[in-house]
Design goal:
Layout (H helix, E strand, L loop, with lengths): L7 H19 L1 E2 L5 E2 L1 H29 L12 H5 L3 H21 L3 H31 L4 H8 L4 H22 L3
Antiparallel strand pairs: 1-2
Helix pairs in contact: 1-2, 2-4, 2-7, 4-5, 5-6, 5-7
């Protein structure tokens, strides 16, 4: 994307990307702690689309959920989901898409820079989500420390998220030239 204007193709790709994130949020993988594939979709799309289209894709996904479409995990919807205890992780996806997209725009899909961008993007998502969780949970249910929030909301997801990032990296490397063919 060389200009500031979005083409019809860009808009279509953003819409399809938002739909993919929604579908991935509905897919729950049963494990010790069940997890969805939202972060996989965000990482993959940001790597494929770059920072502008990647961030816009996540923003469209969030707006669809905020206005009432059941695009969030568990088929949830509404602005209340974003304001709830785990809404900070969804908001953190914007940072994830930004960092991964900037990395891809700068370095392409070279394995090491892309892996580092995904790691940093997920760490920023964890930081945003955990800080949000601590504030919201403390207001609604009583005090919780950062370590408590991390043990509930981050530690159980480290290995699954690492696997999702690895899969996103592999797919991005395979699909990058196809998606970005002009």
């Amino acid at each position: 994307m060389t200009s500031n204007k979005l083409s019809v193709r860009d808009l279509a790709v953003i819409a399809i990307g938002a739909a993919l994130i929604a579908v991935c949020s509905w897919l729950s993988v049963p494990f010790t702690v069940p997890f969805t594939l939202q972060s996989f979709a965000v990482c993959l799309l940001a790597a494929l689309l770059g920072w502008k289209r990647g961030v816009l894709t996540v923003l469209v996904y969030m707006l669809l959920g905020a206005v009432g479409l059941p695009v969030f995990a568990g088929f949830k919807a509404g602005f209340g989901v974003l304001l709830g205890a785990t809404g900070g992780y969804i908001i953190g996806f914007l940072l994830t898409a930004l960092v991964i997209g900037l990395g891809t725009d700068r370095f392409g899909v070279k394995p090491l820079p892309l892996a580092l961008a995904m790691l940093l993007g997920m760490l920023l998502c964890y930081a945003c989500g955990t800080a949000w969780f601590v504030v919201v949970y403390t207001r609604s249910s009583g005090p919780i420390g950062v370590l408590g929030a991390l043990s509930w909301c981050v530690f159980p997801f480290l290995v699954p998220d690492a696997l999702k990032c690895a899969l996103a990296l592999l797919l991005a490397r395979r699909l990058y030239s196809v998606v970005n063919k002009r």
